[in-house]
Amino acid sequence: MTTIGFIGLGNMGNPMAANLVKAGHTVHGFDLVPENLKTARDNGVVVMANGVAAAKDAEIVITMLPAGKHVLSVYEDIAPKAAKGTLFIDSSTIDVDSARKAHAIAARHGLLSIDAPVSGGTGGAAAGTLTFMAGGSKEAFVKAEPVLKPMAGRIVHCGDAGAGQAAKICNNLILGVSMIGVSEAFVLAEKLGLSHQALFDVASTSSGQCWSLTTYCPVPGPVPTSPANRDYQPGFAAALMLKDLKLAQEAAQQSGAVTPLGAEAAQLYALFNAQGHGGADFSGIIKFLRGDSA
Ligand code: NAD
Fold it and tell me: Which of 29, 80, 215, 225 has the greatest number of C-beta atoms within 10 Å?
C-alpha cells in the first residue's frame, strides 16, 4: 500500500481521501480549514501540520484546490522538498496554462506529474465513481492509475500535460450549453401548453436526447433523481458551472477558438449567479430563463 499526501480536503478532497484510506492507503492530509481537518481525521486521514509535511514522505501527492493560483503556490512550496520521482496528481479544475506551469515546476524538481481533473461532483467523490481525465506522460499515468482507482468509475488518459484540463472544460462547455438548450425547450413547451412529461417522452427518445435531459432533467417529474425534484439543491452548483465556463472562454480566447454559445452560456450563468443562486444546482438556470429566479 502507498503513502499518499493529500492537500485540499474540502467538499471533494475529503471524501476522495476517505476512499483512499478505505482502500488501505496511508493518507497524510492537509487543509487550511480546521473543520475540514477534523472531518479528515474522523475518516482515518493522518493530519499533518502543513503541505510540505503532507508531501514529505509520500510516494504520491494529490492536490484538490480551488484554482490555478492555489495549485501553483502549493507546488512551489512542496516540490523542492519532495523526494525525486514522487508523482504529483492535481485533480483541481484549473486553467490549462496553470496546469502546464504546474507540470513544469514538477519536472524542474525531478518529479512525475499528471493533471487529473474529475467530473461526478461530491456524490461521485463519496461513492468513488468519479471520472478522471488525465494529462501527462505515459509513465506518470501508469503510476497514477492504481491510486486513482478507489476514487474512480472511469479513468481516461487524454494526452500530454494539460490535456486532462482541456477535456474537462470542453466537456463542461457542452454541459452548460446543453442544459440551457434543454431548459429553453421546456420553457417554450410551457408557453405552448405542452406538458413536461410529453416533451420528455418525445425528446428523450428523439434527436434532442442528451444527458442534461435524460439524467439531469431541469423540471421535476420525468427524472425523479434530478435536482429539480429537490428544489435545485446541488448536485453541481451554478458557481462551479460558471467557473468552468469562464475557464473555457479563457482557453478559447487564448487558442483562437470561436465559441459563441459558450460565451452566451457563461454570460447567462454569470447573471444567474449575480442574482444570488451560485449555491443552487446549475439546472436551476431554467428558473432564470422563465424569469422567476430573482
Ligand atoms: P472546496 O472549496 O470545498 O475545497 C478546496 C479546499 O482547498 C478548501 O478546503 C481550502 O481550504 C483548501 N485550500 C486552499 N488553499 C490551500 C492551501 N494552500 N493548502 C491547503 N489547502 C488549501 O472546493 P471543492 O468543491 O472541494 O472543489 C475542489 C476542486 O474540485 C475545485 O477546483 C473545483 O472546481 C473542482 N470540482 C468540484 C466539484 C464539486 O462538485 N464540488 C466537481 C468537480 C470538480
Answer: 29
Residue-range domains of the chain with CATH? 3-160 (3.40.50.720), 166-290 (1.10.1040.10)
CA of 74 to the centre of ligand 1 (A): 13
Q: What are phi and psi of 114, to 5 degrees?
A: -135, 145
Question: d(Cα 23, Cα 4) in Å, to the nearest integer?
Answer: 12
Q: Evaluate: CB of 276 within 6 angstroms of ligand 1.
A: no
State if residue 188 touches ligand 1 by the CB under 6 angstroms criterion. Answer: no
Please report which helix (H) or strand (E) contains residue 28, including its range. strand 26-30
Place of cell 478532497: 13
pLDDT in tens, 243-282: 999 999 999 999 999 999 999 999 999 999 999 999 999 9
- Respond yes or no: is residue 56 known to be catalytic: no
Taking the C-alpha atoms of residue 209 and residue 200, their distance in angstroms, rounded to an integer, is 9
pLDDT digits (tens, 9 = 90+) for 103-136: 999 999 999 999 999 998 888 999 999 999 999 9
For residues 116 and 165, give the distance between their C-alpha atoms in angstroms, rounded to a whole number: 7
Bridge partners of 5, per DSSP, are: 28, 61
Give pTM, 2 decimals: 0.94
Choose the catalytic residue: 56, 168, 243, 287.
Answer: 168
Q: How far is the CA of 40 from the centre of ligand 1 (A)?
A: 14
Hey, is 124 helix, strand or coil? helix
Q: Which atom of ligand 1 is nearest to the CA of 74?
A: 18
Atom of ligand 1 nearest to the CA of 73: 18
How far, in Å, from the CA of 30 to the mean position of ligand 1?
Answer: 12
